[in-house]
Design a protein that fits this description.
The protein is α/β, with parallel strands linked by helices and about 350 residues long. Helices cover about 30% and strands about 20% of the residues. The relative contact order is 0.11. The N terminus is likely disordered. One of its GO terms (biological process) is asparagine metabolic process.
Length: about 350
C-alpha cells in the first residue's frame, strides 16, 4: 500500500537513503470532511465551517500528498479516529505507549502525529514529558477540513514530516508544526477559533520555521523534556485532577463538589497573576489541608504566575504553575501525582520549576 505513494521515477539509491517516519493518525479537522449543507448553512458557508472531524483515514491524507515520497519513507497507522475535543485519558495512555514503542525500533527515525486542534497543546505537552527518546516527534493539525477551500492540512502534514525527517529536530523534544512554524510543545497554545495561524507561543515565540523543505531552528527548548524527563504517563488509572476558574463573584461550589468527589489535585485558573477571590482562596486552602494538591495558574493568555506574588503560596501550601496555562498545568500535575504516595508541596513546586 505504501508503495502506491512512491513516485515511479525515484531511483533506488535516492530512495534507500531517505529516513523512515511513522505517521500516527488520531482524527481531527485535518481528517475532516463536509457532511452536507442546510438552509441555515448554505454551501458557501460550509466551505470551511460545517464538517465532521475525523472522517478521513490516514491513507486518504497520504494519497493527496504523493510528494512525501521525496522526503521520507512513510509507515502509517490509524490510532484513533476522533474529534480531539473527545480526547480521553485512556487514549493518551495508548498514544504515549505506542509512540514510545515505535521509537524503540532502529529503523524508525521519527514520528508524526495528526491531531485535532482543540486539545493538541495538551497532548503535545503530555508527549513532551512522556516520550523516552531523542528522536523527533512532531504533531500537526489543520484549522480547515480536507474538503475546504484552501485547506491547510496537506501543507502542514508535509512540513511536519519534513521537520521529523530533519537532523536538526533530534533532541528538541516534542514539536508542533503548523503554518510554517515550529513550536515547542511546552510553549504553544491555540489562540484563535478560525485563523490558520491559530497556534502561537505567546511568551517566548516559535523555535523556528519550515518552508519548501528547508528547516531552521533559531532557539532550543530550555526546560527538561522527553528522554531527560523522569515523569511517566499512567497506563491505566490517572489521578483525578480538575480545573476551577476565578472570576467576578466566583463561589466555592465547584471546589466543594470536587472535594466530595475525591479529587487529588486542583488547578486554579486565577485572574491576572493567578489571583483568587477570597472565598475561592479560602476553599482551596482548606483543600490543601485535606491533602489535595493545588496549583495556581492564570486564565490570561501570556505571562507567568509568580510564587508568593499576589497570593501567599508558602503559607497556604499552593504551587505556582509558572508560565504553564491551566490545561498544561493539569497535565503536569496529573503526572506528578500518578504515584501511590502524595507528593509534598515542595516536591511539586520543584517539578513545576523543572518542566
Amino acid at each position: 500500500m505504501l508503495a502506491d505513494f512512491l513516485p515511479t521515477s525515484a531511483s533506488s539509491a535516492s530512495s534507500a537513503c531517505l529516513p523512515r517516519i511513522a505517521v500516527v493518525a488520531t482524527g481531527g479537522t485535518i481528517a475532516g470532511a463536509l457532511t452536507g449543507t442546510t438552509a441555515a448553512a448554505p454551501a458557501a458557508v460550509s466551505l470551511t465551517a460545517h464538517y465532521q472531524a475525523g472522517i478521513l483515514e490516514i491513507e486518504d491524507l497520504l494519497e493527496a500528498l504523493p510528494v512525501l515520497a521525496s522526503v521520507a519513507h512513510i509507515e502509517a497507522e490509524q490510532s484513533v479516529q476522533i474529534d480531539s475535543k473527545d480526547m480521553t485519558l485512556a487514549y493518551w495512555s495508548q498514544l504515549v505507549y505506542r509512540v514510545n514503542a515505535l521509537l524503540t525500533r532502529a529503523e524508525i527515525d521519527g514520528v508524526v502525529i495528526t491531531h485535532g486542534t482543540d486539545t493538541l497543546e495538551e497532548t503535545a505537552f503530555l508527549l513532551h514529558l512522556g516520550v523516552k527518546s531523542s528522536k523527533p516527534v512532531v504533531l500537526t493539525a489543520a484549522m480547515r477540513p480536507a474538503t475546504a477551500l484552501s485547506a491547510d492540512g496537506p501543507l502542514n502534514l508535509f512540513n511536519a514530516v519534513t521537520v521529523a525527517a530533519h537532523q536538526a529536530a533530534i533532541g528538541q523534544g516534542v514539536l508542533v508544526v503548523l503554518n510554517n512554524q515550529i513550536h515547542c510543545a511546552r510553549d504553544v497554545t491555540k489562540t484563535s477559533t478560525y485563523a490558520v495561524d491559530a497556534f502561537r507561543s505567546p511568551e517566548v515565540g516559535a523555535l523556528g520555521w519550515v518552508q519548501d523543505g528547508r528547516v531552521e531552528f533559531q532557539r532550543a527548548p530550555q526546560r527538561r523534556h522527553t528522554c531527560a524527563s523522569e515523569l511517566e504517563a499512567p497506563l491505566e488509572a490517572w489521578p483525578l485532577v480538575e480545573i476551577v476558574m476565578n472570576y467576578a463573584g466566583a463561589s466555592t461550589v465547584l471546589v466543594d463538589a470536587l472535594m466530595a468527589a475525591g479529587v487529588r489535585g486542583i488547578v486554579a485558573a486565577g485572574t491576572g497573576n493567578g489571583s483568587l477571590g477570597a472565598p475561592l482562596q479560602q476553599a482551596l486552602a482548606q483543600a490543601v489541608r485535606r491533602g489535595v494538591a493545588v496549583v495556581r495558574a492564570s486564565r490570561v493568555g501570556a505571562g507567568h504566575v509568580m510564587r508568593n506574588g499576589v497570593v501567599p503560596d508558602d503559607e497556604l501550601g499552593f504551587v505556582s504553575a509558572g508560565t504553564l496555562n491551566p490545561y498544561k498545568a493539569r497535565v503536569l500535575l496529573m503526572l506528578a501525582l500518578s504515584g501511590d504516595q502524595p507528593a509534598p508541596t515542595s516536591r511539586l513546586q520543584s517539578i513545576f520549576d523543572t518542566y
